[in-house]
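Lesson 9: reading folded outputs for more than one chain in a single document. The general rule is that every protein is listed as its sequence immediately followed by its structure tokens, and records are never interleaved. Here is the first one.
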Amino acid sequence: MKYEDFQHLLLEPQGNGVLLMTINRPDVMNATNARLHWELTKIWDVIQNDDKTKNVVVTGAGDRAFSAGGDLDWVANMVGNPKEVEAVRKEAADLVYNILSFEKPIISAINGVAVGAGLVVAMLADISIISKEKGKFTDGHVKLGVAAGDHAAIIWPLLCGMAKAKYYLMTAEFINGEQAEQMGMVSLCVPHGELMDEAFKVANKLAKGSQSAINGTKNTLNGWMKMASPIFEASLREEMLNFLSDDAKEGVAAVREKRAPNFPSAQ
């Protein structure tokens, strides 16, 4: 694949080996549909093979969202559908493992709300920078009646400790920019107007450094997450099994109807 083959990822070389990758579905707050989810698994090999690119800055199109979760029609299609659940399970695993295996630095510029597959990219980035005024995120799985799969089980406890990780993953409360920095969930929290300048400042600094040393440091530290692959795969199995449950049906219905869920398992 080439950069122009991607429908929902906008790839723009910035010079000095820096590539800007924009999650580009602004009309739906950059929510993840089936095509975007697939593209997020494939892009890393394409960038890895681009000899002109030294690192990647990732952000969301527009001024409201990094990526506002999964497209509801796509999520609803998974509920009670074993074939679709298995396909998404494989892609979700590929997304995490392909990011962890990507050898070049990733800088996320979290310009608004981040949920779902977009949050995977934001949190697994090597350096994460969040907008003080507009950046916020949640792993919203439990609100849909499914376990927190994706990336959270392998990295949240490393970032903020087990007590905070359990609290925010089990309650699905939002974490704002200042909280995220205080908890150690992100590298930096900056005023919104300075977000992209700061991201490019970091990217250009890395681009001027020893690429073998920087990439080697990144890849070594990623070993902590790779060691936790059995934990990640267990979380993914729990999530996908839950998509076959009545709780997931109720979770999706509650989101559609903009009401609090009434999960059967809570009765």
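And here is the second record, again sequence then tokens.
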Amino acid sequence: MQVTSKGQVTIPLEIRNRLGFLPYTKVAFELAGDHARIRKAGREAGVSARGRLAIEALRGAADVRMSTDEIMALTRGKARPRKRRN
């Protein structure tokens, strides 16, 4: 593994999964002798990092407007034809 000209490296998937590094997870580096340690950065008091990250990742991802009734029908496997909105 190489460090890019921008100082970036790719954390292997197995390590990201084991440490719970989701996209946009903030990390901290610690120097320990001749090596560095990476860990999740401390989270802000009263803020659920996992929930916040999930919301941030999904924000702006919806591209279809649906009513609550349409969503409920879809999740129950009873999708109905959509009414065209003007």
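What the second record shows: The beta strands are 27-32, 35-40.
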